[in-house]
Each structure stands twice: as structure tokens, then as C-alpha cells.
Amino acid sequence: MKKCIIAVLSVSMLLAMTGCKKDETTKAADESTTTTAAESTEEVTEDTAEQSSEESAEASTEDTSASEAAAVMSYADYAAAELDAEVTIEAYVQAKQSWWDNTATVYLQDEDGAYFCYGMACSEEDYAKLTDGQKIRVHGFKSEWSGEVEIVDATFEIIDGTWTATPVDVTAELGTDGLVDKQNQLVSFTGMKVEASKDANGNDVAFLYKWDGSGEEGDDLYFNVSVNGQTYNFTVESYLCDKDSEVYKAVKELKIGDTVDMEGFLYWYEGANPHITKVTVK
Asked: What's phi and psi for 215, nearest 5 deg?
């Protein structure tokens, strides 16, 4: 009987010891799992923070680049920029030359210089908002065609401000190297004499439809004027001033020998090729 009791007690003690050992193993496993999970969470947190930091840095760099690209240039900076350079300028509308297929061509000017924007992206609705004197910001690329420096592939936004230029008399600068510095500005010419042009039949006429006389009503008008013994060829650009405009009608009434004062924009095509917007016979 005693042996039986001892055997029972021995078995009980063995089971108790086994249970304790199992509890310790489970506890150790739980602690290991907890530690691993904590370490994993810490690693994920660090990775997320590092990724966020990198993304923030990249975004900041992109914002800075965009800001630098959009920095508004002075006229001097624009004039000094290389051809094909990306440019951003602010200036005032002086005349709208044309709108077609959601693009606009306009003359712009500020107190320091002038700009010709060719084929600027523009809806018909926005074109109506480009009134004389309206200030706009333009972003595009500096280009050149036959001597005419212009901004192409441009977009724009309307901003607060209005200003209109007063024509600068450049009569004395005709034929000089310095005239190009006033390219695209609103200018005036005074006391010039209308000289003869030759039409397609060899007749002396005061003006031509197209540069060679091959055009018709509604086309550009070309006429010759002189000062100080030198003769220059001026144009009424039909997109800028169409056949119903006052200047178009006035040029058609010119006579050889008339003395005239004129205003217009100093466009350039293989040399000065003013686009005349006003003619007064003296």
C-alpha cells in the first residue's frame, strides 16, 4: 500500500514539473514573438519615415524647380537670354494681331521693352479678355524668325494691372544699328514722304497689294516712304488691321508725294518692317 502511495506521489510530481516546464516554454515563445513583432513594427515605422522624408525632399525639389522655371524675367534678362531659352515675362497687351485654332498672336510691352508672342495658346473666350493695356504673364520659349525675336509655344494668365505705351518717335533712327533695340515697340514716324512703288504692269503707284503687287483687296498693303534721302518699305498687316480699319483705308488713299506721320509696331523681317496702325496725311 505504501509503495502504491509513493508511486502515485511520484507520478503527480512528475506531471507538475512537466506542466511548469511547458508554461516556461510557452512564456518564452510569447516573449520572443512579442519582441520580434515590436522589432518589425519599429523597422516598418523607420522605413515609412525614411520614405516620407525622401518623398518630401523630392516634392520640395520639384516645387523649387517649378518656382525657378516660373521666375519672371526683366526685359533686360529676356533680351540677354539665348534663343530657345525658356522664358517667363509680364507685360501689357498693346495690340492683338490674330486668333486662330485656339492660338493668339499679340504685341506686348512694358516700360522697358516689347515682346511679340506668336501662336500663344488661347481660347476664343480668353482672347476676348486680352483688351488693350491688360497685363498678362507669359511662359514660353524665346525664338527668332528672319530677324524677328518672338516668344513661341507659350501659355499665359491674366493678372492685375493695366498700362498702355506712348509711341516713341524713331524717325531719326531709321537705317541705324540701334533701331533693332526698339524691336516690337509702339513707335512713330514723322514727316516722311510717300514714294512710288511699281505694280505688276510697271506703273508707278502709291501702294501695292502684297509685296509684289500680286494681291487683292484684303491682303497686306505695302508702300514706300522716305526721309533724309533714304527710302523704306512699310506694311499694313491685314491680320492686325484689316480692310475695314481706318489705316487700311487711309493707305489706299495715299498719293505719291504726300507727307505723312505714322504710328505702328516695329516688326522685323530681314530688317525693319514696321506694321503701321495709323497714317495721317499732313
From this structure: -95, -165
